[in-house]
Inverse folding.
């Protein structure tokens, strides 16, 4: 079965640079979520999109922005990178059902290292 | 979430034994709970879920128990195998929104 695709898988950037992470959800999934996971930490919710509209926002820095496109893929844009942004970034997708709960399926993640 | 940082609790079990991983959740309004397994360098993998109108749900070799009174979840893995070694996270889901993860538990299976 098709899974969530993330690119790139690894990224090395310098402080104050910008980075763009991409996420391609499972086919027919309409909701995308972004999470950040530091070493030894649990994943922290950043932001989510449903049908190309932001649906919820978590602890996402103002330096970060994201959007979901018409083909449902999503991009997380990170500017003025700081050392503390080094982490694993996961994208998850789900299919929204009215009155139901949506299981979120995670991608393999992008490992970002800021030097 | 409030994790224990680099010092995740660890559960070591002998291959073939049963494992029980516990989790406390924080939001009494949460009505959907999920267990994820995360292997090193990989994304969280869905294991099993349970809705708040249930107190037990069984899958293949796994059982999730929910105690809403004390806001507690447990994951039971029967006949634990080396391939079960990973970090296990419980997560609570508010309707249509984000997952809030609990602190992970490292499961180590000894052969």
């Amino acid at each position: 079965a098709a899974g969530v695709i993330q690119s790139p898988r690894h990224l090395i950037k310098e402080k104050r640079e910008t980075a763009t992470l991409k996420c391609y959800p499972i086919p027919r999934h309409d909701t995308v979520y972004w999470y950040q996971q530091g070493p030894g930490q649990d994943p922290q919710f950043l932001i989510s999109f449903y049908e190309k509209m932001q649906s919820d926002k978590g602890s996402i820095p103002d330096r970060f922005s994201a959007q979901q496109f018409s083909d449902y893929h999503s991009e997380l844009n990170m500017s003025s990178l700081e050392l503390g942004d080094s982490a694993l970034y996961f994208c998850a997708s789900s299919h929204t059902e009215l009155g139901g709960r949506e299981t979120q399926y995670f991608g393999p993640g992008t490992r970002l290292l800021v030097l | 979430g409030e994790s224990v940082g680099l010092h995740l609790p660890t559960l070591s079990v002998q291959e073939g034994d049963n494992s029980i991983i516990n989790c406390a959740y924080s939001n009494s309004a949460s009505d959907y709970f999920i267990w994820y397994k995360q292997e090193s360098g990989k994304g969280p993998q869905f294991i099993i879920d349970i809705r708040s109108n249930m107190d037990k749900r069984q899958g293949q070799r796994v059982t999730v128990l929910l105690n809403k009174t004390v806001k507690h979840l447990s994951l039971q893995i029967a006949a634990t195998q080396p391939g079960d070694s990973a970090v296990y996270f419980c997560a609570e889901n508010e309707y249509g929104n984000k997952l809030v993860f609990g602190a992970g538990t490292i499961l180590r299976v000894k052969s």
Notes: The radius of gyration of chain A is 14 Å. Chain A has a mean pLDDT of 93.
